[in-house]
Amino acid sequence: MILTNVVTIKSKNGMHLRPAGVLSQIASKIEYSDLGIFLLYNGVRADAKSVFNIMGLGAFCDANLILEIEYEEGMEEAAKNAEKELLYFFEEGYINAEVPEEEE
Asked: Where does the record place a coiled coil (predicted)?
């Protein structure tokens, strides 16, 4: 099964090293280890758990990327949590390249 979202690079600097590192850090969390998390841009599919793959996309400001989260049956909750956290990153956390604080 796949969750799909369109996300936009909002930073005038595009997807540079710092936010790519934070993005891969989020995607690589242990609770998401069994999920496939990918970004698609200009026909290229990048593993979001790899900084080098993300940087290889060459996504600039205002670029629209497709975020895909692949999961198996029984992993719906982890997939939805990853989706929520990654969408937050693109909407709010990207500008400061900070990992959002966990809710108590």
From this structure: none
Can you tell me whether residue 81 is helix, strand or coil? helix
3-state secondary structure 7-36: EECCCCCCCCHHHHHHHHHHHCCHHHCCCE
Characterize the bridge pairing of strands 36-41 and 2-8: unpaired
Instruction: Round to whole Å and give the CA distance between 91 and 4.
Output: 16
Q: What is the CATH number of domain 2-93?
A: 3.30.1340.10
Q: Any idea where the domains of the chain sit in the sequence?
A: 2-93
pLDDT digit string (tens) for 55-85?
999 999 999 999 999 999 999 999 999 999 9
d(CA 12, CA 77): 33
In whole angstroms, how large is the CA radius of gyration of the chain?
A: 13
* 18: pLDDT strictly greater than 70: yes
What's the token pair of residue 28?
Answer: 């690589």
